[in-house]
Amino acid sequence: MAGWQITGFDSSIEIYSAKLPDLSKSEVVEILKRLCCTSLSFEEIRRSSLRKNDKDRLSLLDRSGSELPISIGENPYFIAEPI
């Protein structure tokens, strides 16, 4: 694998595009979460960072699915695909 292609969307409109070097999936997930945080409030970030069993937790930074492509966020959301 030569790296990753990251694309960000707001609804169906592309808002961001970049290439990443060959990183692990967990490293790519962390980058996508950080990109998502740019559109969240402090409170949304805090609540999305709580433990999964916390009743006040939000899922705004959760990964969608477990396979490729890697997708994080709701709207906007970011996708990473190997290139």
Brief description of this entry?
This protein has helices spanning 25-37, 42-48; strands at 4-10, 13-20, 63-64, 70-73, 77-82. The chain is α+β, with helices and mostly antiparallel strands and 83 residues long.
Describe the structure.
The protein is α+β, with helices and mostly antiparallel strands. It contains 2 helices and 5 strands, in the order ββααβββ. It has helices at residues 25-37, 42-48; strands spanning 4-10, 13-20, 63-64, 70-73, 77-82. It has a 5-stranded antiparallel β-sheet with strand order 2-1-5-4-3, covered by helices on one side. A hairpin with a 5-residue loop joins β3 and β4. 18% of the residues are buried.
**Order of neighbouring strands in the sheet with most strands:** 2-1-5-4-3
Low-confidence stretches: none
Overall pLDDT level:
96
**Rg (CA only):** 13 Å
Structural class: alpha+beta
Strand content: 25-35%
How many strands, what sense, and barrel or not for the largest sheet? 5 strands, antiparallel
* Beginning-to-end CA distance, first to last residue: 6 Å
Question: How would you spell out the order of helices and strands?
Answer: EEHHEEE
Helices, by number, come to 2
Overall 3D geometry?
A: globular
Secondary structure tally: strands = 5
Q: Please give the share of residues in helix.
A: 10-25%
